[in-house]
Amino acid sequence: MNRMNNTPEVKIGIVAVSRDCFPAPLSKNRREALVKAYESKYDKNDIYECPITIIESEIDMVNALEDIKKAGCNALCVYLGNFGPEISETLLAKHFDGPKMFCAAAEETQSGLLDNRGDAYCGMLNASYNLALRNTHAYIPEYPVGDAEDCADMIHDFLPIAKAAYALQNLKIISFGPRPMNFLACNAPIKQLYNLGVEIEENSELDLFESFKNHEGDSRIPEVVEDMKKDLGDGNKIPEVLPKLAQYELTLKDWVEKHRGYRKYVTLTTKCWPAFQTQFGFVPCYVNSRLAAQGIPVSCEVDIYGTLSEFIGEVVSDDAVTLLDINNSVPKDMYAESIKGKFDYKHTDTFMGFHCGNTCTSKLAFHEMKYQKIMASTLPREVTNGTIEGDIIPGDITFYRLQGTAEGGLRAYIAEGEVLPVATKSFGSIGVFAIKEMGRFYRHVLIEKNFPHHGAVAFGKHGKALYEVFKYIGVNVDEIGYNQPEGVRYPTENPWG
Prior knowledge:
By secondary structure, the chain is α/β, with parallel strands linked by helices. It folds into 2 domains: 12-166, Rossmann fold (3-Layer(aba) Sandwich), CATH 3.40.50.10940; 171-482, no CATH class. It has helices at 24-41, 58-70, 86-95, 120-133, 148-168, 190-196, 205-214, 221-232, 242-259, 276-280, 285-293, 304-317, 332-338, 438-447, 463-472; strands at 12-17, 47-49, 75-80, 100-105, 145-146, 171-176, 199-203, 265-269, 298-299, 321-328, 350-355, 368-371, 385-391, 395-404, 410-419, 429-434, 454-459, 480-482. The strands form 3 sheets. Strands 10-11-16-15-14-17 form a 6-stranded antiparallel barrel, surrounded by 5 helices. A 5-stranded parallel sheet has the order 2-1-3-4-5, sandwiched between helices. The chain has a 4-stranded parallel sheet with strand order 7-6-8-9. Helix 3 (86-95) packs across helix 4, helix 5 (148-168) packs across helix 15 and helix 8 (221-232) crosses helix 9 (242-259). It is globular. The N and C termini lie far apart (51 Å).
């Protein structure tokens, strides 16, 4: 099972600038030191050093813009080697069609403060002001002034932000069917998708079913079945359903290729009930998990902003992600037996994240093909086969979501935590999650801000990058929730507890 080419490679063009009354060689030498520092720590293919000696004028800006375009750069770093020309440098950002950042050189030594002082600390203020005048948005690091090594780290921090911003401008979301009844929480105002640069193609379940039927007897099905057997290993407990699942996987992949249009990247969202299982004869959970492993996240229940969130996490983490219900509390006896005194979490810091079976096998501590337990309570068991079940692997996670609001805005949350090495004693793709101050976060962000029950999960700590991505794409910082530490009140939190 190979990962598809569904996320971008980013090359950041580094362009140094100089104000004409400052020595141009100062910016040139500092740019060269920056590039050398980056290449000594990170992949040199991430960056491109614009060879134009320095940008001091509008003509220099035009030449630099053409050069980085020819070099295949799809992201930009404007580097203030000294004070910088506020007009030319911000025009460069304005006319560059892609994500951009600004950073600035610190002074290296006290002995250079007479003849080699750059004053980029001051120039960054003018740059930010002029960017605002031009309505041009750029990423500026938390502390954007540093020596060569510091700025190299800043550019490397910009990589996942640039990847996500570029990817969204080239993304198409393909959905099938309306949301199931009683899933109004997963509302999907389309206007904000367009504002983000995302295209969406909404299809009927009948379209999908017709395409599935047309794939019956597809000559590629046996090959996909063999790949599923390898992936499942000893967890291949319902082998008779694999040909149908393989047929469905091929249906989705072929649809992606025929319908991506001019878009480079695609993500999907589909249904699994109430009629899917009775008509298709299975549930799609395992296929969804396989596509996520291959680089195409698939959200269930036609959760359009859920799959958008998953895609952002896929790009930022460069790893498979999953979508889970923020599902149920951890029983007090489980907390007392397996968590209290062993891990530094209160009972209200814990909860269980669950979905029927859409988490890929590489993110499960153990896995087994099963039937959908909830659906099987009212349907023949054989039409609910197709879930992949197991406890999610312990380790660091980031729980997050980007959501279009009912009022037509954008809202998001991010919370870092971990999956604990605690047996869930339950069913589905599931884990015992722990996030500091989750109880308060649950009440004053998730409930207060009207977020749905679906949350995306990236494996690892990616809160810093996700926060900057959400800021960069236009989410107001007041609308990005996170788990406040103990002692820091939420605006609506009762001060008496």
